[in-house]
Design goal:
With about 270 residues, this protein is an alpha+beta fold. The protein has helices at about 5-20, 120-125, 140-150, 155-160, 170-180, 195-210; strands at about 25-30, 50-55, 55-60, 65-70, 75-80, 90-95, 100-105, 110-115, 250-255, 260-265.
Length: about 270
């Protein structure tokens, strides 16, 4: 599933070409997770003013309203001037005077949704419960620790919930917990202030490194056909049974809810 680094890499690669573009036509294929929310022809003539990110959502600001894009579990975006006809897994084409932005999504859990503004009820339903951005100053270690003290759930589950800090998905939560020496099953409320500060720093470190190498491409993630390389540097994620890169102990995998968690039983002692 594309996580914060993959969504931010996507934003960076398409923003320069998309900002200032005027929409000439909108094509939609098979239904996605949520409907567009407006007739496609209603978007014709509108101009793109900015491309932002909030958590795992891309926000395409128009001169009237905005589009919220989510890549779901397997989505990716391509922008080009001469794309081939849409294929089976292509679901939205945004034709502009600067090229076509295409959403490719084999599993169809992604979405492109129109809202009148960020304060619109629809936009708030998607964005209103999101926590602070982990790479912005508002993500403060003291406030982070204070928020964790009220949570009895395992720390990995709390990170994935996204209401304290947003965008730390399954891959990067596993990696950050390894760097911080914290097991994914540890109750969030049991983390001391120093351990919470260590996790805070690890979250930033992991996300910044992932951004620097273009995110992670395990199966589907691409932007304009290009993948990321963070998977080559992973400490624990998707390495069950393989030796820990630090101590040599076999990496373990457990299930937490619907997700797989990976950890080193020797390096992650608490």
């Amino acid at each position: 599933m594309p996580e914060l680094p993959e969504v931010e890499v996507t934003r960076l690669r398409i923003a320069d070409r998309l900002v200032g573009a005027r929409i000439a036509a909108v094509w939609t294929g098979q239904p996605l997770r949520w409907p567009l929310g407006v007739a496609p022809q209603a978007l014709v003539g509108r101009q793109v003013r900015a491309v932002r990110r909030r958590g795992k959502y891309l926000l395409v600001d128009l001169d009237e309203g905005l589009l919220l894009l989510h890549l779901g579990m397997s989505g990716s975006l391509t922008m080009g001037e001469a794309l081939p006809p849409p294929g089976r897994h292509d679901h939205v084409d945004l034709h502009t005077d600067r090229g076509t932005l295409r959403l490719h999504d084999p599993r169809r859990f992604g979405a492109v949704v129109y809202a009148r503004g960020e304060d619109d009820a629809l936009a708030q339903r998607l964005l209103g419960g999101l926590g602070v951005e982990p790479l912005e100053p508002a993500f403060d270690p003291i406030r982070f620790h204070a928020a964790l003290r009220g949570r009895r759930a395992p720390i990995k589950t709390v990170l994935l919930a996204g209401d304290i800090v947003v965008g730390v998905g399954n891959i990067y939560a596993s990696e950050a917990l390894f760097l911080a020496g914290i097991r994914p099953t540890t109750p969030a409320m049991r983390l001391s202030r120093p351990r919470a500060a260590r996790l805070h720093a690890a979250i930033r470190q992991v996300l910044q490194r992932a951004l620097a190498v273009g995110g992670s491409t395990l199966r589907d993630f691409r932007v304009d056909g290009q993948g990321g390389y963070f998977q080559l540097e992973m400490w624990v994620y998707d390495r069950a049974g393989q030796p820990c890169r630090v101590c040599g102990t076999p990496i373990r995998m457990i299930r937490q809810g619907q997700r797989s968690s990976y950890y080193c039983p020797r390096c992650q002692t608490y």
